[in-house]
Amino acid sequence: MMTSSSNRFEIYDGLEPKEMPAFQALDKLSKHSQYVVSKGLKQAINVALTLGQPLLLTGEPGTGKTQLAYHLADYFGKGTTNNELFVFNTKTTSSASDLFYKYDSLKHFQYIQTKESKELSLTEIEEKFINYQALGAAIKSGRRAVVLIDEIDKAPRDFPNDILDAIESLSFEVPEINKVGLNKIETAASNRPIIIMTSNSEKSLPDAFLRRCVFYHIPFPNAPMLLDILKSKVSAYNENQMELIIDHFLKIREVARRKKPSTAELLYWVAILERQGFDANELKRVKDLTRDKKELLIGSYTALAKNEEDAKLIRDMLI
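RE: above sequence
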């Protein structure tokens, strides 16, 4: 692990400071933004920062895996222009080089065929035909940034292992502009990107890759955590009403079979209830609702149920 004697990384929750070229601690993250971070996730973030390793997140859709990267970028970049988020959306066809740069060979070829001019310099080739991607752009930027590699389990199996050396060395090469051996792109340890990787666990990842990552599974929030989330984002309902909404939502998750609604869908649903002027106190006795109010509630369920089987099971709760 690379370290720097000129920078100290302060770890919260009472742990001893470690020598790290890094950001400040995340002691106020959950207060700083509307993203609610559990104690376990905070600890995982600190471990990843301390070791200088990528943080690999799993969890069902809607638990905040992707959004964590956005909030980290916002937190660390607050009040400055020196921190950014670079996003790489993994595809089934992704290769390791795609994470660093893309070379537009067709455009280059067409340029050569149509332009009657002197041969382009390596710098001109880079400016016209090289597009730096996510991790490559972060390394090349020369400053600390957050990199999100989203749904890494979609990539071919060799992809994770192929990117590890570049992540650890903080360097990569672009052969298309490296013909004279002068173009190894690298950055200092003090500019090491914070790398967040997400996985939907659709397929297993290589053991060698997992050994060099910090892993954390984000569980679905329990009722108190959901209440914290609603309190940070909703103003139309008081705490008692929010508890009724959460209780009804969790019952919906229990009956749904094919696709349980996520936290994001809970927020959409609450927004619909608010827009419709629905009194959350009515959720105390949903089977006693008037026909009109039942129809209104059933209409709002379209934000939660994403297939007919689950929609019917949820509607049956009102009978």
